[in-house]
Amino acid sequence: MIYYPLSILMLAGIREVLLISAPESLAAYQSLLGDGTHLGLKISYIIQTEARGHVDGLLLGAEFLDGEAACFIFGDNVIYGHGVSGKVQNAAELTEGALIFAYPVRDPKRFGVVEFTADGRVLSIEEKPANPRTHYAIPGIYFYDGQVVEMARQVKPTARNNELEITELNKLYLAQGKLRVEMLGRGVAWLDAGTHASLLEASNFVQAVEHRQGLMIACLEEIAFTMGYISRADLLQLAHPMQNEYGNYLRRIADAA
Predict the structure, then answer these.
(1) What percent of the chain has pLDDT over 90?
(2) H helices of the chain, where?
(3) In a 3-state reduction of DSSP, which class is residue 14?
(4) How remote is the C-alpha of 23 from its chain's centroid?
């Protein structure tokens, strides 16, 4: 599912990517994506040797970030729908504080939950609350300013699971009055593909949309071309060895340009 979070980063205009991987998965990611040059990107890799929580990923990436603003996105998220590109492009311009997103769900107890005002000011956030204050979950995509590593170093392991949870980092920004929220409402699909069942659900959703529209979701080569990261000639060169439906799709994109 790594194509989906990577596509969000590309649509946001982010071209330098650090992929944080478990040791057993690293080779597969490197084989699939390489250094990103073919997509007009620069992809680096780092190993997370033990599951210490999402904030640990930010700490591992401290040298890569080097005091710059960042987008941190979970690898098992699928976010798709009209207006998403504009929202993440605007979010990528953030220079101070942090920005999270809110998405209405039927069962908020399973997620991090955000309470906020009409103008996007966050009032509270809770991780998997027994009695949620709202039905708005927080999808796994976050934008942070250049202070994120310094803030991450202040996060303590939670009593809930002894991990460095992303909610605790967001609470630090909230305490400083520097946490904002944007709505992902109707017309946007957010799917967490972290279990076998949810992966199947996400796959079925993507297949249905692609079959009906004839357009591919999270096609990295198409996004790279549309965003101007690669040329039409580059796109055709990538398509050339693919004598299949995917390659034919890339050729159609190039022909339509």
Answers:
(1) 86
(2) 3-11, 26-33, 54-60, 62-65, 84-91, 148-152, 166-175, 196-213, 220-226, 232-239, 245-256
(3) coil
(4) 21
